[in-house]
Fold this protein.
Amino acid sequence: MPWRRTREPYAVWVSEIMLQQTRVETVTPYFERWMRRFPTVATLAEAPLDDVLRHWAGLGYYARARNMHAAARDVVTGYEGKFPPTAEGLRALKGVGAYTAGAIASIAYGEAAAIVDGNVVRVLARVDALPGAADEAELKRRVWERAGELVRADGGEAAGDFNQAMMELGAMVCTPRAPGCSKCPLAKLCRARAEDSIAAHPGAKTKKAPRAVDAVAVLAERDGKLLLVRRPPTGLWGGLWEPPMREIAAGETPEAAAQRVAKSCTGLTLSNIQSIDRFDHVLTHRRMRFHVFRARARGRLKLDGYDAARWQARTGSDEVGVAAWTKRLFSKELT
């Protein structure tokens, strides 16, 4: 993993933010491209947000990228370009919680600060046979307390190594299914193994089925170019560019929704409307079904719900930051 080759605070911060709710194999190429484009916190702070989001596109949870951009500017303007050296100080930065602060403080600065992710929860829940589901507040509280005791006992510059070892132990050995107990260095200390209750620790999270959502996306054409609009900087897909898109109202046909969305969101009137595609895209809490229409657009732009617009040549659709569903749509329809 390329981020393990350095203890530089900026690189540790970037990797830890990217790894939140994202698999290592997915993050690795993104991290390498990011560090080539934004090698220092200063270059990130100076970059336009559109460029930052473009390099994040596909990783999801885009608030992470927006928060990183804001935090980078805070580091440059408020901390003379240097990250605070303590977990407490790091938590003042936007988007930096207890886990990320502990990771940076321990790995980059050697502070005996605990970090707890899903892997650490699993390891300590099994070693101490702690009751509760992985997402229960009481279990997490006890694991944070125990992790703090352990990292303080190790202490000093070894804190970062200890924290990384705990995470990797959970990721590579103490796995959710078929854990490698025979090669685990904590096997003799593990109460769950002694009690033959490994599968019960931690308990399963409560999962909700994603909500089904139907939406329309309108490829509005004018003079051989497509209209892209940018979402406001907060909320789902905030700051990203997309063709005009909204959910279909109850009882509304996709065709009627396409006309409504174009008029209400952009002020444009559509003609020669054609249904050209339909595809599903699954998010954590939503199962999106996109109904895609192509149409000629006329009228004057008047945005509502978007903060910017551009008429984009088909060959330049990768010049701005777009969400995964938009990228998927363009790869299918603009080739």
User: Anything to note?
Assistant: The chain has two domains: 2-200, 211-333.
